[in-house]
Amino acid sequence: MSFVADLEKHLGVSLITDPDITSTYSKDQAPFAPSSPAAAVLLARSTEEISKALAFCSERKIPVVPRGAGSGLSGGANADSQSLVISLEKMNQIIEIDPANQLAKVQAGVINLDLDTAVKEYGMAYLPDPASRDWSTLGGNVATNAGGMCCVKYGVTSHHVRALTVVLSTGEIIEIGKSTKKFVTTLDLLHLFIGSEGTLGIVTEITVNIVPRPRTPATLIATFSNITQAASASTELLKYRPSMLEIIDQTTLKAVEQWHPLGFEVAGSILLLQLDENFELGDSALATCQAHGMVDGMFSTETSDAADLIRVRKLAYPALERLGATLLDDVALPVTKIAEFVEKVEDLADKYKLMIGIFGHAGDGNMHPTIVHDHGDLEGEKRAKLAFSEIVAIAQNLGGTASGEHGIGSIKRDMVGDETSASVLNLQREIKKLFDPSGILNPGKKLP
Ligand SMILES: Cc1cc2nc3c(=O)[nH]c(=O)nc-3n(C[C@H](O)[C@H](O)[C@H](O)COP(=O)(O)OP(=O)(O)OC[C@H]3O[C@@H](n4cnc5c(N)ncnc54)[C@H](O)[C@@H]3O)c2cc1C
Questions:
Q1: 231 vs 225: CA distance, rounded Å
Q2: Contact at 8 Å (CB) between 126 and 212?
Q3: What is the CA(144)–ligand 1 centre distance, in A?
């Protein structure tokens, strides 16, 4: 490729150009997002190296795709044949752990769980817990503003980031935010970058909050004959400040039962709740579930029970995945609209003759309808893609949004305009131009 030799000379390092390897660095986990093997991949080692690479690419208008672990589900890290992929995976050093100031500073390629494991030694925790935390990077988590199960109580990634080092497309290195717990001195560029999906700059270092490790949680499980009851119970259960509140529909429960029978074959829906303080509220939480039609339920403070009780939630996605090709959607709704949303998605499953299992974070309204069709069934795949978009439209019409945590990437770009005014979109395009005047950073992503 035309720029590769010059860039190698400019940086003094070799780039990866073998298409067998570049192809694996050129797409994430989204099943139908377009991609082609990038022209080259840079395994970056420092902020300065990224700065030199971006200055070079800016001058020559070479598209650049930042990449963490490639665990994204929106095509956000997908490349085309003209692009340079900059992978942060080698920038995986924990720079500082400062328990007294309750912060840690890391390079962007550090794996989420590695940070949590490292701070555990100090009795501290890094809380944001995407289900991909074992392998996704903190840079990717920041770029997508990742969430997880404990976010119902502790908030998403943006609630835990204090400062970033970012390389702009010109190669300029900027520091935004502050390592202090509070900071209102400037306009809040920090939160503009969090969730920007690699379109405004490449994050190379991150300062995050660490907090005293919460107690091992107590767990409640409750079955209901239908999801409407479970959803209405979940809204009321928020008063107990759960550290987890998950809902699973009957289709998903049946898929789990077929694989690992756990005794939920007749349940219409289940709720799982965890408390990491105020365990004495467990009985009241059970009473709340009873008032909403709970069929069966239990609350346990035994650590050994927790893993057993939440096993069904851990199996939800893999159980659907083993039944065929899957499209995992991600929308966020007002919590009071969950039941109505589920009803409409069930109608959609009938309309398109597809299996759609629904599970998600009931506590914050972030639902993951998962569409299943037969492998190799092209007609089924077409119907699945139509259903995927219609699920987003259903959420938007109920006052929800196209993505709660997985991001827009390339697969949901066309849906952003359905919930965002033209003037807000224009402002965002102007912001993009300001930070990335040559338009090289992750083109075709996030902004419609
Ligand atoms: C099984 C499974 C479960 C998942 N569960 C969750 C979940 O519970 N919650 C959740 O939020 N997500 C979840 N995800 C989605 C995904 O793991 C998250 O979006 C994660 O934050 C992506 O991190 P990554 O390092 O893999 O980033 P990548 O996929 O490599 O990149 C994601 C986006 O960030 C950009 N990017 C990456 N690194 C940088 C950087 N340093 N600077 C600037 N831009 C960058 C990329 O260009 C891309 O747009 C799940 C994915 C899978 C496969």
A1: 11
A2: no
A3: 6
pLDDT single digits (tens) 327-343: 999 999 999 999 999 99
pLDDT (0 to 100) of residue 308:
87
The minimum-distance atom of ligand 1 relative to the CA of 66 is 47
Q: Give, to the nearest 10 degrees, the angle between helix 250-259 and helix 303-321.
A: 100
Indicate the pTM of the whole model.
Answer: 0.97
Burial class (CB within 10 angstroms; exposed 0-12, middle 13-18, buried 19+) of 287: exposed
- For β-strands 64-67 and 84-87, DSSP reports them as parallel
Q: Which of 91, 136, 200, 447 to mutate to test the pocket of ligand 1 (most atoms within 8 A of CB)?
A: 136
Nearest-CA residue for atom 1 of ligand 1: 132
Taking the centre of ligand 1 as the mean of its atom positions, its distance from the CA of residue 442, in whole angstroms, is 14
Measured CA to CA in angstroms, residue 182 lies from 153, 160, 161 at distances of 20, 12, 11
Q: Is the CB of 400 under 6 A from ligand 1?
A: no
Q: Strand 84-87 and strand 294-300: pairing?
A: unpaired
